[in-house]
Amino acid sequence: MKVDDKMVEHLAHLSRLEFDDTSKEKMKFDFEKMLDFVTKLEKVDTEGVDPLVYMSRETNVLREDKVKGMVSQKEALQNAPKKDTDYIRIPKVIKK
User: Fold this and answer.
1) What does the pLDDT read at residue 79?
2) Domains of the chain: total
3) Is residue 18 in a domain?
4) What is d(CA 16, CA 11) in angstroms, rounded to the nearest whole number?
5) Which of 31, 39, 48, 83 has an alpha carbon within 20 to 30 A of 20's alpha carbon?
6) Neighbouring residues of 27: CB distance < 8 A, sequence distance ≥ 6
7) What angle do CA 7, 13, 17 make, to 5 degrees?
8) pLDDT value, residue 95
9) pLDDT score at 81
10) 49 in a structural domain
């Protein structure tokens, strides 16, 4: 597959990126290197090789959740910069 300016412009449009002429040439070079690598991978004989699901055989050892060091509502409200009668007030995050 040949990478041309049209393909780079199309990929830039899809990814919402803009490239100047110098960057576009660098991207063409990088895309061609990636495609060459994939072409080499296609030639590798993988007959009888199981798919790799995990990178290692180790399993995560998770600790048990334990509740400790609780703060009462009254204590939490004492340290709040802004508060209501029962709640900590924070700036609005989602604007409609």
Assistant:
1) 82
2) 1
3) yes
4) 8
5) 39
6) 8, 11, 12, 19
7) 110
8) 77
9) 86
10) no
Q: What is the pLDDT of residue 38?
A: 93
pLDDT number for residue 30? 94
Domain annotation covers residue 37: yes
Instruction: State the 10-residue block means of pLDDT for the chain, 96 residues long.
Output: 89 92 93 94 90 80 86 86 85 81
Residue 40, judged by CB atoms within 10 A of its CB (0-12, 13-18, 19+), counts as: exposed
**Which pLDDT score is estimated for 34?**
94
Give the C-alpha separation, 19 to 26, whole Å. Answer: 10
Task: Supply the pLDDT for residue 80.
Answer: 86
Cα(87)–Cα(29) distance, rounded to whole angstroms? 56
Q: Is 72 among the domain residues?
A: no
Q: Which helix (H) or strand (E) holds 5?
A: helix 5-14
CATH code at position 9: 1.10.20
Distance from the first to the final alpha carbon of the chain: 46
Q: CA 4, CA 55: separation in Å to the nearest integer?
A: 36
